[in-house]
Amino acid sequence: MEFIDLQTQYRLYKTSIDQRIQQVLEHGRFIMGPEIAEVEEKLAAYVGVQHALTVASGTDSLEIALRALGIQAGDEVITVPFTWISTAEAICLVGAAPVFVDIEPVGFNIDVELVEAAITPRTKALLPVSLFGQMPDYDRLNAIAARHGLAVIEDAAQSFGATQHGRKSCAVTSIASTSFFPAKPFGCYGDGGALFTDDDALAERMRAIRTHGGMQRHHHPLLGMNGRFDTLQAAVLLAKWPHFPEELEARARIGARYSDGLRDVCQVPEIQPGNTHVYAQYTIRTPGREALGQALQQQGIPTAVYYPKCLHEQPVFASAGYTLGDFPVAEQASREVISLPMHPFLSEVDQDRVVEAVRQWMGVGGQHV
Question: What are the structural domains, with CATH classification, of the chain?
Answer without folding.
Answer: 6-101+109-241 (3.40.640.10), 244-364 (3.90.1150.10)
